[in-house]
Amino acid sequence: GMEEKIRQRTDSLYETQAQVVHQEKLVGIGQLAAGVAHEIGNPLTAIDSIVQLLALDSDDPAVQEKVRMIQDQINRISEIVHNMADLSRPLSMQIQAVDLNVLLRSVLGLVRYDARFGPIKVETEFAEDLPPVNTVEDRLFAVFLNLALNAADSMPDGGTLAIRTELHDDEIHVSFADTGHGIRAEHFERIFEPYFTTKARGQGTGLGLSVSRTVLHRIGGDIEVRSDEGKGSRFLVRIPLKPLTDEEEQSGDGR
Ligand SMILES: Nc1ncnc2c1ncn2[C@@H]1O[C@H](COP(=O)(O)OP(=O)(O)OP(=O)(O)O)[C@@H](O)[C@H]1O
Ligand SMILES: [Mg+2]
């Protein structure tokens, strides 16, 4: 009836607002990262040229060897800077063919520079020849990034994060299993609510999972969780190979 309709509209407004807040946070982080990346990039290019000049000045093989070592390290820094700059790409709604294994590797390429990942071992088991999915890459990037960071937050003293991709009939399954503190029974029902967080003020907005679920519902997928308090959690993301048509999306669950 009318009440149900109002409730649905209110829910959907609430979720839209949550998405906007979450995206602004991501965009903010991205802009900061891009700024830093840019500032580091210029002196790095200068160092690279100077080192190349040094190499030209000398015939000494020992010097040549050291120059190569310096250049290896410069390349490492450039790669980090490149990953940071990537974060600043504006979030788009453009559908494209996405290789989930590649996307997950780029998420991991980014989080390994996060201090929280220092004591954490990451294991991956990626299905070979995973078909590409037609989806919004940036949104999925944010979904996986949040799952990785949540896992890290649950293992402050270290542990293992196992990420796996599998093809299941007409869906791709991506799972994130951690050996962290798990989710308390009284929190379990609430983790997908917008703004629900157990993290300290300033450390979590509580929007990660709620926005992720909305994004996944939009593409006809879903997210499920299992958790053993004190032992760890496992989040399973299901993504259909067949994308929703516009019509299905509009008449779907009203979001
Ligand atoms: N892997 C996990 N292990 C234990 N608890 C988790 C895990 N993932 C999520 N949670 C719980 O679910 C809550 C909500 O997660 P969500 O990603 O939505 O928000 P957040 O991480 O708190 O903040 P944000 O993602 O906005 O920075 C977390 O605060 C935490 O209590
Ligand atoms: Mg989170």
Shape: elongated
Give the helix/strand class: alpha+beta
Major sheet strand order: 2-4-5-7-6
Count of DSSP strands: 7
N→C terminal distance: 18 Å
Q: Count of DSSP helices? A: 7
- Corresponding CATH architecture of the largest domain: 2-Layer Sandwich
Bound molecules: adenosine-5'-triphosphate, magnesium ion
Mean pLDDT level: 85
Helix content: 40-55%
What is the H/E string? HHEHEEHEEHHEEH
CATH superfamily of the largest domain: Histidine kinase-like ATPase, C-terminal domain
The main pleated sheet reads as: 5 strands, mixed
CATH-derived topology of the largest domain: Heat Shock Protein 90
Textual characterization of the structure:
By secondary structure, the protein is an alpha+beta fold. It folds into 2 domains: 85 residues, Orthogonal Bundle (Helix Hairpins); 157 residues, Histidine kinase-like ATPase, C-terminal domain (Heat Shock Protein 90, 2-Layer Sandwich), CATH 3.30.565.10. 52% of the residues lie in helices and 19% in strands. It is built from 7 helices and 7 strands. It has a 5-stranded mixed β-sheet with strand order 2-4-5-7-6, with helices on one face. Strands 1-3 form a two-stranded antiparallel ribbon. Strand 4 and strand 5 form a beta hairpin. Helix 1 runs antiparallel to helix 2 and helix 4 packs antiparallel against helix 6. The structure holds adenosine-5'-triphosphate (ATP) and magnesium ion.
